[in-house]
Design goal:
This protein is an alpha+beta fold. Helix content is 57%, strand content 15%. Helix 2 crosses helix 3. The protein is elongated and about 115 Å long.
């Protein structure tokens, strides 16, 4: 069973046509100028609430990863259960540690913060991608406006030159007729 938590209106507009019946929660922070960790915590808490209620068994976060101004790479990151990124090919010895307070108590506090941190990271990556796209669009608009000004200047100069030439021809023709 697919369940979608949508953040933002652009993504919602794209997926609601085909996957609208799977959307369980919508978040929109349009009134916020800057997204902070507080908003990521709200979403993280909602994800954890749904997970603890048995709403899903796997959570995948989709966002744009900012590579450079021109390139943004769509990413899919599994946040519940956490992916084990340690390769099993490496020959590493594992050491047992004692935790104070209890290990479960530490995880109970850190895991919700980890989920919120991953959501906030996705927010930041999306914001960087958006700013990169805007910068590219504005650069293209500036370049196109400069080209348009150059073309209009050439057309203006040609028409001005044509009218001057016409006036000179009229003056010369008038002088010859006398």
């Amino acid at each position: 069973n697919l369940k979608i938590i949508s953040v933002g209106s652009k993504g919602l507009d794209q997926i609601k046509r085909e996957y609208g019946k799977y959307i369980v929660k919508k978040f929109s922070f349009k009134e916020k100028k800057i997204i902070t960790f507080k908003e990521a915590e709200i979403i993280g808490n909602e994800i954890l609430r749904l997970f603890s209620d048995g709403g899903f068994d796997k959570c995948i976060l989709f966002y744009n990863n900012f590579k450079n101004v021109i390139t943004q790479i769509p990413q899919a990151q599994q946040i519940i259960p956490a992916e084990n990124k340690i390769s099993k090919d490496k020959d590493e010895s594992y050491v047992s540690y004692e935790f104070e307070p209890d290990e479960d108590e530490i995880l109970e506090d850190l895991l919700p913060k980890n989920i919120s941190t991953q959501v906030f990271r996705a927010f930041l990556e999306n914001a960087a991608s958006e700013q990169g796209s805007r910068m590219t669009a504005m650069d293209n608009a500036t370049r196109n406006a400069g080209d348009l000004v150059d073309k209009l200047t050439i057309n203006y100069n040609r028409s001005r030159q044509a009218s001057i030439t016409k006036e000179l021809i009229e003056i010369i023709s008038g002088a010859e007729s006398l």
